[in-house]
Design brief:
71 residues, 0% strand, mainly alpha
Length: 71
């Protein structure tokens, strides 16, 4: 049981970090693109949002990165 708990904790930590960075990149890129000025978003709110929205923002950040070469 201890191994399962550690596994779940590691998965949540990875989702928190990767989802947080992906959410931050996604919001900063599209926010700056729409507003026309650079947008700076703090990491902590993005990490919390990435914990819940990471399943959507990680692929969205990858698509945004690909589109950044076109736009």
């Amino acid at each position: 049981m201890k191994g399962i708990g550690i596994f779940i904790l590691v998965i949540l930590l990875i989702n928190l970090l990767v989802g947080g960075f992906a959410t931050e990149y996604f919001v900063e890129f599209w926010g700056g693109y729409i507003k026309g000025v650079p947008v700076d978003v703090p990491f902590l709110p993005c990490a919390i949002a990435g914990l819940f929205l990471g399943e959507f923002t990680i692929p969205a950040a990858i698509v945004t990165w690909i589109l950044s070469f076109v736009l």
